[in-house]
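Board work, copied verbatim: Serine acetyltransferase
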Amino acid sequence: MTLLSTLREDLTNARAHDPASRGDVENAIVYSGLHAIWSYRLAHRLWAKPALRGPARVLTQLTRFLTGIEIHPGATIGRRFFIDHGMGVVIGETAEVGDDVMIYHGVTLGGRTMQQVKRHPTIGHRVTIGAGAKILGPLTVGDDSAIGANAVVTRDVPAGSIATGIPAVVRVRTEKQREEGVDPTYYIDPAMYI
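↓ predict structure ↓
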């Protein structure tokens, strides 16, 4: 894809995922999630050239300062990725994120080891991750899954599942939960906290 077509796709995706969206011009100016994604795309290209890894990290830190979102330039992120609100999002170096993924503020795709191995999660396609969720380690979240708000996920989540709680409990998503536009923060099971 060309740079212009990627920008248009990201703007269209932002409108599709945010009912408060007022238009492409406003979104391009004020959406910190879009700014972080666009900066990541540039930093990722720089990261691919070993001689430019330093500037890639500097760009990442500048973006973190400006947006509150930190995406390591070594991470792999697919198309139509959207970060709603964004503040406090952290995506680690070996994280892999599929297409059509949406995450909310405070999400961490983090590691659990200090060794230089695959240490961050792999997120499938069409996954929604609720606010404050922590997905830790080299696990896999399958396609069409949802992670509830504030869930702590340390084990694989099969495709078509929902994970909620601390530690996360995984169950199959119902048709109602699969409906487009259903916020994963509603998936919290209050009985788990009693």
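The chain has one domain: 3-193.
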